[in-house]
Amino acid sequence: MLRGARESTPSRRAPGEHMSRAELADAICAWLWDTTEIKYELDGHYIAKLERGAVRWPGAAYRSGLRHVLDVAADNELGFFPPSGIAVTEPEPTPPSMVGHDDDLIHASDESIALLSFAEESNVGELTVEQLQADIERIAQSYLRTPTRPLFAKSRAIRDRAFALLAGNQSPRQSRDLYSAAGWAITMLAWMSVDLGRPDIAESHTRTAWACAEAADHDVLRGWIRATQHTAAFWQEDFVRAAAYAEDGLRYSAGTSRLFLASAASVDNARAGQPDKARDMLELAQQLSVRQADSEPGGLLLCTPERAEGLWADTYLAFGQPEHTSTHADHSVALFEAAPYVLRNQGSERMARLQQAKARLLLGQLDGAIEAVEPVLELQLEYRVRPLIHRLAEVAALTSPYARTPKARMLRARIAEFTQLPARRKEDQT
Fold first, then answer.
1. Tens-digit pLDDT profile for residues 230-253
2. What is the mean pLDDT of the chain?
3. What is the residue range of 161's domain?
4. Number of domains in the chain
């Protein structure tokens, strides 16, 4: 492995010939970063495995990096040949893209997972379950900071793999683990469906997710499914049903979903014309002290204090109290900005900024509203999900009292362009 590439060109020095293993790994990682903006963890130990032949078919990204650094045209010049039964249809590493391009990582990881189960003695081994759980966490934590289409495809692949494994023989504990993995994957599919403008479809997903949670007897998963069902009903403007889902979810008092559900129920009831219930739920949420459950994937499926406070701001907006809305939205955004970038829930942070903007417009602070909404208006097309567009339209509607001012007209024009681009892109693709 690898030495064959150098032996094939004896008349000249091959690129990388006098590099150490660590230097070769660093050169490949640097090229992959420049090419894909993805950080890879290749090191000298892995290069040694390639040279020994312990790994005979590395992932597509590593093969591309080796071909580039060692200046060879084909994998077989490096001594790499695909295992029997593996179709070589992987794309070359490219910068992340939104629509119509499957991420190379999806193909490589799916291959690895497929091979893993064959390497274990049973239908389902510990490493197989661990891989499913790791993939779920990666998707949840990457959502709305990386393009949605590859994450949607990966969630669907996890769902399908879990059910395929369930068709085999495993212990009851392993079956529960697989039902749990399938339930989390389907829950993420449902949430993404809401963001992509189909909350009705999302509810179909959640019914199957709930059956998985029942089979796994998993309260943390149950809580987040109820949170997702609330979200689907909320974005269909069925606030009574949304509140019912959120309040029922409070029965499953595990993890941070309880904080999300109480906060969401306060918004639902306020919008449904039930101010007393809304205040009860708001008081409950503000008094809760919760900790992340071990099984919570994080990211999308985690409620931090800043995420909850953004929901409280929405409740006060429904109460017609923009001063309190502004206070909580400002605090929410400050907490998001203080958190490490990798832990920030980008979708919830954007919503909190729009709550800021709406509160400031209601308080007569046009300049402050423009400042709050500016980071959202700079958002790339692939992250312009339907709820965000809906909230931006609400911001635009609140600029009516300022209609004669050039700044307000400019803000409305920018919002119109922001909200119309996704629709035009969809028309272009059809």
1. 999 999 999 999 999 999 999 986
2. 85
3. 126-303
4. 2
